[in-house]
Every structure is written in structure tokens, then in C-alpha cells.
Amino acid sequence: MVNPNIHRVLDEIPSHYDRRQEVEAFDSTKAGVRGLVEDGVTKVPRMFFSPPDWNSEKIASKDSDHFRIPVIDLGGTNLESVDAVGHKEIVSQVRRAAETWGFFQIVDHGIPVEILDEMLQGVRKFHELPKEERSKYYTRNASKGIVYNSNFDLYTAPAANWRDTIACFVTPVSPNPDDLPREIRDTLKEYSKQIMKLGVALFELLSEALGLNPSHLNDMGCSEGLVFAGHYYPKCPEPELTMGTSKHSDNDFLTVLLQDQLGGLQVHFQDEWIDVTPMHGGLVVNVGDLLQLISNDKFKSAEHRVLSNHAGPRMSASFFSTTTLPSTRTFGPIKELLSQENPPLYREIMIPEYVKVSNEKGLDGTSPLSQFKL
């Protein structure tokens, strides 16, 4: 049952400030940040306050032509139908984007815009269910299969983010459809199929961009696991005090993000924060830590963040490509990329080891990659 006295509980926190007490009081509501907004909160609780340096970095001009996220036209539903010259140009664009930005947007990717819109609508419908309905899914136990909560790292990160999430594995083991909220059930099933197909094609392009056989990354298992996360960023009364998502890099091989038109996503590039301007029908693709590791730093896992906003809510649907968990398979820099001039920069690791380190430290503004360097 949702605690109706959450604000009274928070107001009674002693002056010396016990963050753990505030976090536990918030978490016990099972209503997330959305619950605070529903209750009419006008001040951001202290547990959400970002460290001052997180918000002090320079933000580039939205109108800067030099600092604009690459946009790549994939040429339709079937990449094999693109002629040799066009295919070579797509691979070249993917290579440049992955090496320099670690981020790019794709258009003409083959997924109907209607499915994209329905996915975002489904995310919104779930997060805007009455508290009593959505709280049934609230848990911090990943073994439940369907996980709805606010901040996976709520108890470990330096500051909580102004964001709620529903997440699940979609492959290789799909959730029981009856366990999924009906608001996202059918759309998630269809959208996941489309994303899996697109993911295979993207890893083929990335393999070629590394000078490898097109099937190399898929054969390694980079696309065999897929995790869905539907994020909901409510309007924030004091956005200058907190982040929608703190600075971080993704602990996967590749992320495909569908964002709505509100904006707020930024990527760190040449010591500046650059807006990733929403494109209706477009998808954002970014390199993850694991792809940077196996490419031996050839590809860049860029830090990114999401700003909180007076406006809202903002919705997004992310798909994270990883391997089957748990797995005893080891990953290190791809041997075909190594030479005397290009020795391995990282030791071999198992994916659960990397994910454990990443999850335990939470979104603290630093990358786990340095812990695995030789």
C-alpha cells in the first residue's frame, strides 16, 4: 500500500540529515518520482540534490554546426539491398561516428514510426497508472523478471535521479506475456522483434567498420542478449538541483534509444555537453563500455546524461545489447585488432564481473572501464 504520509515522513528527517532514512522513506512508497509529483511536491527532496560540479560543465550552443551528432541514413528496411558504394559509405559513417562521438542517430532504419510512437505511448501509460496499480510491479529484485522502480542505484549513488523505470530482459529468455503490464505488452513484443533485427544489422556494420568479417561481433554473442528499459522523467519543480540521469557510460555493447520530442539528452564531446536533438522517427545509437573494451579503444563509449526539466514528462525506451547472463564466456580485446603497435589495453573479463562492478558503484560520474585496464 502506498504510504500517504510520505511528505510528513520526509519533513521529520532530523537536521543532521540521514540520507538512508530519506531514501528508505521514499522507496517504501513504491510510487517513484511520479508519486512525488502526484502528491504536489514543490521542492526537490535532498536525496536528489546533485553534487555542484555535476551541473557546472559548459554546455555548447544548440546551433553549433561543428558540434552536431552524426545522422546516418541506413537506406531502408534491408541493408543488403543497398548498392556496394552506398554500403561502403554507411560503414564509413558508422566508423567515424563510433570512433569520434560514440554516438549517432539513425534514420530510414526500417522500423515503422507508428511502432515507435506506440512504444513511447505504452511507457507513458504504464508510468501514469494509478499508484496502486503500478506499485504492484515495484521491486528491487532483478530475479522477478519485470522490474519497476526509481533509480536502480538508489542506495549506492551519490544522488538520486529524477527518473522512474520499468525494465526486463526480452531475449534470450522473454518474459511471460501475462506478467507484463498490458500497457506495454503487445507493443514491447513487436518493437523488440524489430530492434533485434536492427541490432544484428548494426553489429554487422560495426564489424565491418573494425575491418572484420560482418558476422564477427554477432558470432561473439554481442547481440544475443537484450534488455529493455522504459524511462519516465516527470516534470521537476527545481531542475537546477537534480539530474534526470547522471553522467555515465553504458555497461553494454550497444544501446539503441528511442526518445520523445522533449529533449534533455546530452553527450560529452570535446569537454562540452552537446544536445542530442530529438528526431521524430529517428533512433539514437551509442557505443557501450564492452564494445570499447573489445575494440581496444578503437570505438568510444561516450559519457552522456539527461537533464531534468520544468516541462514534462519525458519518455524514452532503451534497448541494451549484452550477452546472456550469467555466462562463463570471457571477453577481451579482439585478437584480430591487436599487433605489436596496438597491444591489448584491457584484461579479459566475464560480463557478470563487469556488470557487478558497474551496478555496485552506481551512476557516480565515473566509468568502470579503468578498473579493467592492464
UniProtKB/TrEMBL annotation:
Keywords: Iron, Metal-binding, Oxidoreductase
Pfam families reported in the protein's UniProt record: 2OG-FeII_Oxy, DIOX_N
PROSITE patterns associated with the record: FE2OG_OXY
Fe2OG dioxygenase domain segment(s): 222-323
Domain of life per record: Eukaryota
InterPro entries xref list: DIOX_N, IPNS-like_FE2OG_OXY, IPNS-like_sf, Oxoglu/Fe-dep_dioxygenase_dom
Molecular functions per Gene Ontology: dioxygenase activity; metal ion binding
KW Flavoprotein (keyword) present: no
Gene3D superfamilies: B-lactam Antibiotic, Isopenicillin N Synthase, Chain
Family: Belongs to the iron/ascorbate-dependent oxidoreductase family.
UniProt name for this protein: Fe2OG dioxygenase domain-containing protein
